[in-house]
Amino acid sequence: xxxxxxxxxxxxxxxxxxxxxxxxxxxxxxxxxxxxxxxxxxxxxxxxxxxxxxxxxxxxxxxxxxxxxxxxxxxxxxxxxxxxxxxxxxxxxxxxxxxxxxxxxxxxxxxxxxxxxxxxxxxxxxxxxxxxxxxxxxxxxxxxxxxxxxxxxxxxxxxxxxxxxxxxxxxxxxxxxxxxxxxxxxxxxxxxxxxxxxxxxxxxxxxxxxxxxxxxxxxxxxxxxxxxxxxxxxxxxxxxxxxxxxxxxxxxxxxxxxxxxxxxxxxxxxxxxxxxxxxxxxxxxxxxxxxxxxxx
Amino acid sequence: xxxxxxxxxxxxxxxxxxxxxxxxxxxxxxxxxxxxxxxxxxxxxxxxxxxxxxxxxxxxxxxxxxxxxxxxxxxxxxxxxxxxxxxxxxxxxxxxxxxxxxxxxxxxxxxxxxxxxxxxxxxxxxxxxxxxxxxxxxxxxxxxxxxxxxxxxxxxxxxxxxxxxxxxxxxxxxxxxxxxxxxxxxxxxxxxxxxxxxxxxxxxxxxxxxxxxxxxxxxxxxxxxxxxxxxxxxxxxxxxxxxxxxxxxxxxxxxxxxxxxxxxxxxxxxxxxxxxxxxxxxxxxxxxxxxxxxxxxxxxxxxxxxxxxx
Lengths: 296, 310
Description:
The complex is a heterodimer of chains A (296) and B (310).
Chain A: H1 2-26, E1 51-57, H2 62-75, E2 79-86, H3 88-97, E3 102-105, E4 117-131, E5 140-141, H4 143-150, E6 168-171, H5 177-185, E7 198-199, H6 203-212, E8 216-221, H7 222-227, E9 233-237, H8 244-249, E10 255-263, H9 268-278, H10 280-289
Parallel strand pairs in A: 1-2, 1-3, 5-9, 6-7, 6-8
Antiparallel strand pairs in A: 3-10, 4-8, 4-9, 4-10
Chain B: H1 6-9, H2 18-23, H3 25-52, H4 54-57, H5 63-66, E1 71-72, E2 79-80, H6 83-114, H7 117-132, H8 135-153, H9 165-189, H10 193-201, H11 206-235, H12 238-244, H13 261-269, H14 277-308
């Protein structure tokens, strides 16, 4: 009898869990709308709010949001900031559905036809063309040369001043923010030679592939390049080196704004966290240390 | 006891009385469990099915737009042809099965018919360990060992990149080998010993018995094993993605890069926004994958029915 009752209660518990799981995914976290009024942060201090929020989306921005979130939580007891990746599209979708409070994206919501979101431009992020170290004699590509390589018109490094070696083009997926930005800013919208290229999923996979494949070239986030110094070689673009200063000044053109979107005006912890990200601590110290360029 | 049917009391010698008997808890628990599974499968089907047809119903694409050979979703006009991925999934799966089936059936025959008990006590656990290795490990080994090996040693026959259809199939073959081998083994050991004894008594060699008696008797089971292996191959994304090169065109040879449905879905899903055609077509690809797996289930069940007939 006891045994039977135990089984029955297990079923009840299971059903309860299922209901709880369904319920929690449908309702936004109540803490997000906490509505505590927050004073703008003074230089060097953090104006804290409490509660729990989730920021999801762009993997290019993720190292920055992750670090800022950890620092914020350390400074503010009672706050929880969950940072997830998933890609820019995921970030935009989830924030517009109310599933997360902040959606991180490399691309604008307008470019994806999403309305009702408030944009917060938090940093400039750069990308850099990289080559396998066995490619010699090439340290710079003009936009025109890059376009010839990426569209398949040029397929040997000797045609752009390098050694006699076939070029292996490694792309990110067509939906990736990195690829879209490079296509827009450097290729002038020209279609890449997809049928002659390899495709890799992430910055990490691209570094592995470029490192391991002789004659290969690709584009990776500047922050990821800095973490993998010596494994792949960076190329200048139109004679200009990828540095935080050149990105900030705009002379290095392969850089774009990183967006953190909220659904409607941010409030509570989300407002406080965004103020922190846009404040002097993150803009002045955290962002340059992670190889992004500040916007303030 | 006498007034209750035997089936109801089978779980306990002491018949339940009163409330417990009326509630009939074990029956309800199992019924709920079974109902939940059916409900979940139904919901999953409905969800993927509904999302999978959006590209046709909401965006207005035709079947020939989607089942086309050109994938160029960001060009104007955008082209969402998924045939390269369908071809990739089928191609990588069939070649993997061609590599894995002879090896794993050979292994199963060795374990069931040839191996002395001590050898069987090694190969069986070894195979179980094989099954438990996460797919990312296979992918990582493929990426760091197989791909450079193919590129450095077989450049002459076309492996200029190493990333290729063949590399994907080889990694998959390794992954499905234990699946096929263990099901094939289970089939072989259920063949009645009389068949073996009778055959050997007629003076045949062991090989003749295996070749002419056991394999024909186990044919249906072995085929089921291969198809279940292929199902596992069709669903695998990660390991294949790491070695296949992910080129969204139909390959012209085994040495060329290509891509699969699963790989393309994982590449694009995070970067697309729900509701845009690009995202809708990913759901359609998921639906195609689901229908492929249904086809396999139907085949396996048909084979099972045939096997159970005299």
